[in-house]
């Protein structure tokens, strides 16, 4: 499932910024390197899916996820030197996804008005009883 497209990124960043970000070694570049955009979008989608795995597959991409995917892709295109604004957008997206993963923010609704519920096939962590008690010194 695609959360954002190159067109979405162009709307967010502007064509000139994307040209610069996708051609870091060519200051005279005049076109967007679509391969770099695809890489950044794939990395953004993978990062989002890490948080919402139990909710996949989604029947519809919520608008929030589209924005987060664009912010993440932009952050990844900046590589090691994002601006403060771009870094903050990325961190805000992570915080949002952590709340989604914790069930504090529901996913959806989709076009039919349904919200996503986590799949029960997720990971279960079962702890063994403690071997030592507070009284054991």
TrEMBL record:
It comes from the Bacteria. Pfam families: Phage_Mu_Gp36 (PF07030). InterPro entries: Phage_Mu_GpJ. This is DUF1320 domain-containing protein.
């Amino acid at each position: 499932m695609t959360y954002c497209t190159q067109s979405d990124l162009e709307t967010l960043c502007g064509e000139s910024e994307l040209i610069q970000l996708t051609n870091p070694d060519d200051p005279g570049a005049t076109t967007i390197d679509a391969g770099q955009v695809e890489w950044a979008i794939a990395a953004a989608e993978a990062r989002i899916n890490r948080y919402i795995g139990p909710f996949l597959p989604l029947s519809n991409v919520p608008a929030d996820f589209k924005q987060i995917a664009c912010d993440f892709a932009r952050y990844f295109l900046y590589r090691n030197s994002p601006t403060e604004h771009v870094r903050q957008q990325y961190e805000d997206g992570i915080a949002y996804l952590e709340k989604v993963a914790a069930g504090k923010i529901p996913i959806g609704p989709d076009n039919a008005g349904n919200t996503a519920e986590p799949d029960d096939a997720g990971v279960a962590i079962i702890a063994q009883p403690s071997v030592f008690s507070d009284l054991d010194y």
